[in-house]
Every structure is written in C-alpha cells, then in structure tokens.
UniProtKB/TrEMBL annotation:
InterPro entries: BTB/POZ_dom, KCTD7/14_C, SKP1/BTB/POZ_sf, T1-type_BTB. PANTHER family: BTB_POZ DOMAIN-CONTAINING PROTEIN KCTD14, POTASSIUM CHANNEL TETRAMERIZATION DOMAIN-CONTAINING. This is KCD14 protein. Pfam families: BTB_2, KCTD_C. The gene is Kctd14. Coiled coil: none annotated. GO terms for biological process: protein homooligomerization. CDD domains: BTB_POZ_KCTD14.
Length: 243
C-alpha cells in the first residue's frame, strides 16, 4: 500500500511499525525509485539492509512517503537482483561490492570477492602494496609536490626513486644526496619483500594517482650528474598534466 500525501505527518509512526505495512515496499535510493517486497529486503536476517526493515528502524521517508536510503541508487538494482534470484552481478563489480559491504550482505560479499576483479585487487595488488612501506603516504606526497609546482604551468613533474631491495637503496643513496643538494624533491618507494617488480609498482602508482582524478604519465629520469649507475634503473619522472 503506497503512502498518500495526506498521511505525510505520520511518516515517523509508519517507520516505527513496519509490521503494519503492506508487504509491497516503495524505496527511494539516492533518487532512484524501486518497488519490492519486505521479504526480499529481509532475505538475509543478519544484514544491515534487513535490519533497516526490522523492529524499530531509523528510516526516513521522502515527500511521497517512500522509504529513503541515502546511497547510490544506480547500483541498488544489482543488490535487488541478487536478493530476488541469487544472481551475482557481472557489471560494475567494484561499485556493487562497496554497496554489498554497506548493506552487509555477507553471501554476496563472499561471492564478489571470488570474482577476478575483486580477488585481484584485494588479494594480489592490495596485499603487495601493504608490503611497500608508506605507500599511501608517498602517493599523497607526490600529489602535494605536483600541485605546489603547478603554478602557471601546463605540467608539473615529480621525481620518484623506486628501490626493490636494501642493496638497491644503498646504491641510490649518493644520487639521492645529490638531488637533495640541488634542492630537488624526490619521493622514494621501497624496498619491499614481494614478487612484483619495479615496473609493477610504477603501474600501481599511476593507477592510484589516476583514481584520484589526475592525468599522469611517467618516464625514466636521466640525471645530469652525480649518478654512478644508470639512473633510469631506479629514478623516474612522473608528469602531471593540468590542462
């Protein structure tokens, strides 16, 4: 039973006594409208979504009396498809995974984590990056340096030193000292104990900076002086393009 406009003042009372509602429920999820049943929404009793419609929920209603959930509505259809037919989505996997985590639908979470996209990100890439000291902090440092040098420029650059082993780190120290004397900022990644190579880490850096909305590329950094080895083995220049 839909809730008519003359009953709007009773919205709080209705949300406090869901057992009196029709089994058909109208939802407004982030501006997207859905119609489903209470039994569908409560299919997994331990989930946050089921709890929203159990007991004394804290749900608001919109101007038309539909229950309002302040989440991206685009992906809720995939949540509903799973609840209705156990169909695991094959599109927008990363975004649906975030919604499954929010609604705490454990069976869907586990099935999505078995998908190649989520498995590769959580088990492979994230586990590797967790072994690279200060990875997230260094990404933020790169962005701060690039933004500081972007005044009246189309591009700004950041020098990155990537060392996989302690031996490589020792070899790079003289070059780092030389760059420091020239007052050039360098962001150093590594060393780490994991299989992925320097090129793998460079790809991760580019991927994560681009995920923040920046346009970026990288190339070997060729030093003018002070390097006793091929600088492009460990030093790279990341270019941020602003316009």
């Amino acid at each position: 039973m839909s809730i008519s406009s003359e009953h709007k003042p009773l919205g709080k009372q209705v949300t406090g006594s869901l057992h009196m509602l029709s089994p058909i429920v109208e939802l407004n999820v982030g501006g997207e409208m859905y119609t489903t049943t209470l039994s569908t929404l409560k299919k997994h009793p331990g989930s946050k979504l089921a709890e929203m419609f159990t007991g004394q929920p804290k749900l608001r209603t919109d101007s038309e009396g539909r229950f309002f959930i302040d989440r991206p509505g685009t992906y809720f259809k995939y949540i509903l498809e799973y609840l209705r037919s156990n169909q695991v989505p094959t599109q927008c996997i990363q975004d649906v995974y975030k919604e499954a985590l929010f609604y705490d639908i454990e069976p869907l979470i586990k099935q999505l984590e078995d998908s190649p996209q989520i498995f590769g990100e959580l088990v492979a890439r994230k586990q590797f990056l967790a072994r690279v000291p200060n990875y997230s902090e260094n990404i933020e440092l790169m962005i701060r340096i690039a933004r500081a040098e972007a005044v009246a420029s189309r591009q700004s650059s950041v020098i990155v030193c990537v060392v996989r082993t302690e031996e490589d780190a020792a070899r790079c120290q003289d070059a780092l000292n030389s760059l420091d004397m020239d007052k050039k900022s360098v962001v150093k990644f590594g060393p780490w104990k994991a299989v992925p190579s320097i090129s793998d880490l460079l790809d991760c850096i580019q991927m994560d900076v681009e995920a923040k909305g920046y346009k970026i590329s990288f190339q070997p950094h060729v030093a003018e002086k002070g390097f006793r080895f091929k600088s492009h083995d460990f030093f790279y220049k990341f270019l941020f393009t602003w316009w």
